[in-house]
């Protein structure tokens, strides 16, 4: 059997197409539990902030630690089960920690530059950064991440401007819920 | 390589191999997800995977996840080498370096 140059080109295109879809599907499936985890953390965090605003900083610090630890545990469990995540290996713990430190420093620097921010402004800013990260990831890695990013941004802004008095509960139910639903959606690929 | 590897050259098997090759090292893909990726029926996909497994190109692992049976497929080293050879063969044809 011999192949023509056109047949070889078509075969290479098919390899490229299938490989891209496979990488995307694998990325979606592996990201799913992390979306669910952080969605639950948002639900707890924003509900706690609404109920106990004085302890919000302490609560969020504890939740961030729990989230990073949970992320590491899930990543390692999946790697042991034969589902290695391309971005999660034995250096993942430090990378996640460094990522959150970088995000935290960025947020603190931004508030320092712009002056006093209300609890609601602070509570809206972080989800918008998360939405930005998902959107950029979506542009490069898969449209479902982009849809999630846009949804989180839209829900955050909608809640901030139209449900200002109940913004924390809105973010708990809808912001956290959006992440959980996105996680379940990613699993369906 | 003078001739294409017929085991890989078949269209569905080519998609299976391409999908598996795109996974990270040691990565496995569930049967149902692979079925959606290569757009094959369950029986058709199962037959092609058996062919590739008999050739030593893929490894099939069956277990339970959340109390449900799960079948996962991974590329073996032998399969990876065969696929790379096949891709080189195709590139050789395009570049005019292989007998076409």
How would you describe this protein?
The complex is a heterodimer of chains A (189) and B (100). Chain A has 189 residues and is mainly alpha-helical. Chain A is built from six helices and no strands. The model of chain A has no long low-confidence stretch (mean pLDDT 86). Chain B is 55% helix and 18% strand. Chain B has a three-stranded antiparallel sheet with strand order 1-3-2. Chain B is elongated. The A-B interface holds A 1-5, 8-9, 11-12, 14-16, 18-23, 25-26, 29, 82-86, 189 and B 3-4, 6, 9, 11, 14-15, 18-29, 33, 36-38, 61, 72, 74, 87, 89-91, 93-94, 96, 99-100.
Task: Please summarize what this structure is.
The complex is a heterodimer of chains A (189) and B (100). With 189 residues, chain A is mostly helical.
Topology of chain A as a string of helices (H) and strands (E): HHHHHH
In round numbers, the mean pLDDT of chain A is 86
Strand runs of chain A, count: 0
Strand ordering within the main sheet of chain B: 1-3-2
Overall shape of chain B: it is elongated
- In DSSP terms (H or I, runs of 4 or more residues), the helix count of chain B works out at 5
Q: Cα distance, first to last residue of chain B?
A: 11 Å
Low-confidence runs of chain B (pLDDT<50, min 5 residues)? none
Summarize the biggest pleated sheet of chain A: none
Largest interface: A-B, 27 and 35 residues
């Amino acid at each position: 059997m011999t192949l023509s140059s056109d047949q070889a080109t078509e075969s290479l295109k098919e390899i490229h197409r299938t490989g891209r879809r496979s990488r995307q599907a694998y990325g979606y499936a592996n990201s799913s539990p992390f979306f669910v985890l952080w969605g639950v953390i948002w639900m707890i965090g924003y509900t706690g902030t609404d109920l106990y605003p004085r302890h919000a900083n302490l609560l969020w610090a504890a939740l961030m630690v729990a989230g990073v630890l949970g992320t590491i545990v899930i990543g390692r469990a999946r790697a042991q089960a034969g589902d290695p995540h391309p971005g999660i290996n034995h250096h993942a713990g430090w990378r996640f920690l460094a990522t959150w430190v970088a995000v935290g420093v960025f947020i603190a620097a931004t508030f320092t530059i712009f002056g006093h921010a209300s609890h609601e402004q602070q509570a809206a800013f972080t989800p918008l950064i998360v939405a930005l990260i998902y959107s950029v990831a979506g542009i490069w890695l898969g449209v479902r991440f982009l849809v999630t990013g846009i949804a989180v941004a839209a829900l955050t802004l909608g809640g901030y401007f139209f449900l200002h008095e109940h913004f924390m509960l809105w973010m708990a139910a809808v912001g956290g819920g959006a992440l959980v639903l996105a996680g379940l959606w990613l699993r369906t690929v | 390589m003078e001739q294409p590897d017929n085991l890989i050259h078949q269209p569905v098997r080519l998609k299976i191999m391409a999908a598996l090759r795109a996974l990270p090292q040691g990565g496995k893909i569930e049967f149902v997800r692979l079925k959606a990726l290569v757009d094959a029926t369950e029986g058709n996909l199962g037959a092609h995977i058996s062919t590739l497994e008999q050739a030593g190109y893929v490894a099939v692992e069956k277990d339970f996840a959340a109390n449900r049976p799960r079948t996962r497929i991974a590329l073996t080293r032998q399969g990876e080498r065969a696929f790379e050879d096949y891709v080189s063969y195709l590139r050789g044809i395009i570049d005019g370096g292989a007998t076409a």
